[in-house]
Specification:
This protein is mainly alpha-helical. It has helices at residues 2-19, 32-52, 57-75, 80-101, 108-130. α2 (32-52) packs antiparallel against α3 (57-75) and α4 (80-101) runs antiparallel to α5 (108-130). The longest helix is centred in the last third of the chain and has 23 residues, at 108-130.
Length: 137
């Protein structure tokens, strides 16, 4: 019973941190190297899924990118909510622009460049905004 209570406490703490970070806790920018690793992993998984012919494979890249951004939001990076919103908006905009401009065939390889650019743009925007300097009061 003690183990369940302890794990529940950890979940509650993570949910609270998602919405509000305690005062006085430092807010560091998102680290570039782990985000780059996530991006390369997403591109590899998407390419492998497209090669295998899995139709939903390229979408997994975008889901993994959003999951990575949410993980950084829970960790409490600097400018976390504006960075998350901007990352989603830029990713969605790039996706719409690529779908409108490319006349890609309806196959996993045709969708791969669209979702690869969406993933890259969303993660790059998120990391760039978290590296903006702090507000001075």
């Amino acid at each position: 019973m003690y183990g369940k209570s302890r794990s529940l406490h950890g979940v509650v703490r993570s949910v609270r941190r998602f919405f509000r970070i305690p005062r006085g806790e430092p807010r560091h920018p998102s680290r570039v190297l782990p985000s780059l690793r996530i991006c390369v992993f997403c591109l590899a998984v998407g390419a492998l899924a497209a090669w295998a012919g899995w139709d939903e494979g390229p979408v997994v890249m975008t889901v993994a990118a959003v999951w990575s951004m949410l993980d950084d939001v829970i960790d409490g990076v600097r400018h976390r909510w504006p960075a998350f919103a901007a990352g989603l908006a830029v990713g969605w905009s790039v996706n719409r622009l690529m779908h409108a401009s490319l006349n890609a065939p309806d196959s996993p390889w045709g969708e791969y460049p669209v979702y690869a650019s969406t993933t890259l743009a969303a993660l790059a925007t998120f990391v760039a905004i978290t590296h903006l300097p702090r507000r001075t009061r």
